[in-house]
C-alpha cells in the first residue's frame, strides 16, 4: 500500500513489446520499396508509350514519302522503319495520298507481366492534291 492507503498503480510490462518498432520499420521500408517499384514500372510504361508514338509518327511519314512508288512500297518503308526503332508495325493503310499506321511494342512489367503499347499516326497532305 502507498502512503495514502491506496493500492499502487499497476504498470504495464514493456518487455513484451520490445522490438516492435523494428518490425514496424521493416514493414514501412518494404511498403516504400513496393511503391518505388510500381512507380518505376509506371515510368517504363509511359516511356514505352512515348517511344511507340514517335515510331508510329516517323513510320507514317516514311510511308507517305514512299507513296510515289505505290501503297505497297509506302507500307514496306513504314514497316522497315518501325523495325529499326524497335517496334512492330501492326497495320498500314494507304488511301490515295493518306497513310495511317499503327505501331506497337511489348512492355515487360516485371511481376505485373507484360503489356502491349500501341499508337496510331496519320501522314498525308493537308489540302487537296490535284
Automatic annotation (TrEMBL):
Domain of life the protein comes from: Bacteria
Transmembrane segments: 20-44
InterPro entries, alphabetized: Rv3654c-like, Tad_N
Keyword tags: Membrane, Transmembrane, Transmembrane helix
Keyword Transmembrane helix: yes
This protein's record includes keyword Iron: no
Domain Putative Flp pilus-assembly TadG-like N-terminal, chain residue ranges per copy: 19-65
Annotated protein name in UniProt: Rv3654c family TadE-like protein
Organism: Nocardia jiangsuensis
Amino acid at each position: 500500500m502507498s502512503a495514502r492507503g491506496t493500492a499502487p498503480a499497476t504498470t504495464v510490462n514493456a518487455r513484451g513489446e520490445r522490438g516492435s518498432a523494428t518490425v514496424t520499420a521493416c514493414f514501412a521500408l518494404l511498403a516504400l520499396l513496393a511503391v518505388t517499384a510500381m512507380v518505376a514500372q509506371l515510368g517504363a510504361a509511359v516511356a514505352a508509350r512515348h517511344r511507340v508514338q514517335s515510331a508510329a509518327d516517323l513510320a507514317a511519314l516514311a510511308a507517305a514519302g514512299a507513296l510515289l512508288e505505290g501503297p505497297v512500297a509506302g507500307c514496306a518503308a513504314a514497316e522497315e522503319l518501325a523495325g529499326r526503332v524497335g517496334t512492330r508495325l501492326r497495320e498500314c493503310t494507304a488511301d490515295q495520298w493518306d497513310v495511317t499506321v499503327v505501331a506497337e511494342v511489348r512492355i515487360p512489367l516485371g511481376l505485373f507481366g507484360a503489356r502491349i503499347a500501341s499508337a496510331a499516326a496519320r501522314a498525308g497532305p493537308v489540302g487537296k492534291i490535284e
